């Protein structure tokens, strides 16, 4: 089972959601991201949020259309996205993607990145029209070339990332130690059909980006 969660980020940053649909995909709406799903012709299996950004008449319609709509109070200890992601992780999904999680308010953006750290090591991505963001634990990881996302950047999330090795890249590395705050591994490129990145200690964020904000 694959779970795709759509948050309330700016619509112009959403990729084509239908491109990510499939027989094994379960869609989940978060706050006004629920209406984005319905407008795309996709039926959410669950919807979460306080819906404080959605007009009352639209909330009433959503309640009629979605019996499993979960309306939470605005004052709570988790964001709507965290509530939805916690539920998705409990379903033991083999892959989770977050849409509508970037752009707009920076506090929401950084909060959503923190959610990837909370579940570091699980197959969870943040996806928008220009980027795919993942968080990785030590080990050897394979990456396949995708011409939609030309640039590949690695950002240390922990204080230090030890033994970083990049194979198959324009700018290779061998057993390099990088510290938080380093920009050494920004804007690399795969020059082979696939490559690997590996490291022995720390937590590493990988961001794959396109040249323009028009990636489908």
TrEMBL record:
Record InterPro entries: Thi_PPkinase, Thiamin_PyroPKinase_B1-bd, TPK, TPK_B1-bd_sf, TPK_catalytic, TPK_catalytic_sf
Coiled-coil boundaries: none
Alphabetic keyword roster: ATP-binding, Kinase, Nucleotide-binding, Transferase
Residues of the Thiamin pyrophosphokinase thiamin-binding domain: 139-205
Pfam families registered for this protein in UniProt: TPK_B1_binding, TPK_catalytic
Presence of the UniProt keyword Lyase in the record: no
Listed GO MF terms: ATP binding; kinase activity; thiamine binding; thiamine diphosphokinase activity
Source organism of this protein record: Geobacillus stearothermophilus
The keyword ATP-binding appears for this protein: yes
Name used for this protein in its record: Thiamine diphosphokinase
EC annotation from Swiss-Prot or TrEMBL: 2.7.6.2
Gene Ontology terms describing biological process: thiamine diphosphate biosynthetic process; thiamine metabolic process
SUPFAM superfamilies given in the database record: Thiamin pyrophosphokinase, catalytic domain, Thiamin pyrophosphokinase, substrate-binding domain
């Amino acid at each position: 089972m694959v779970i795709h969660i759509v948050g309330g980020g700016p619509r112009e940053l959403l990729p084509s959601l239908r491109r990510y649909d499939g027989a094994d995909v379960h869609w989940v709406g978060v706050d006004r991201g629920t209406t984005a799903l319905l407008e795309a012709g996709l039926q959410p299996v669950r919807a979460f949020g306080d819906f404080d950004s959605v007009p009352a008449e639209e909330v009433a319609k959503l309640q009629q259309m979605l019996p499993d709509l979960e309306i939470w109070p605005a004052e709570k200890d988790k964001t709507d996205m965290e509530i939805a992601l916690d539920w998705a992780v409990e379903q033991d999904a083999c892959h989770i993607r977050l849409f509508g999680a970037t752009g707009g308010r920076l506090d929401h953006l950084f909060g959503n990145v923190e959610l990837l750290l909370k579940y570091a090591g699980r197959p969870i991505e943040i996806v928008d029209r220009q980027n795919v963001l993942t968080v990785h634990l030590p080990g050897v990881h394979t990456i396949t070339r995708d011409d939609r996302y030309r640039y590949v950047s690695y950002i240390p999330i922990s204080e230090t990332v030890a033994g970083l090795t990049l194979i198959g890249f324009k700018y290779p590395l061998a057993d390099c130690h990088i510290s938080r705050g380093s920009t050494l591994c920004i804007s690399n490129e795969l020059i082979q059909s696939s490559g690997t990145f590996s490291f022995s200690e720390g937590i590493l964020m990988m961001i794959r980006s396109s040249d323009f904000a028009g990636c489908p």
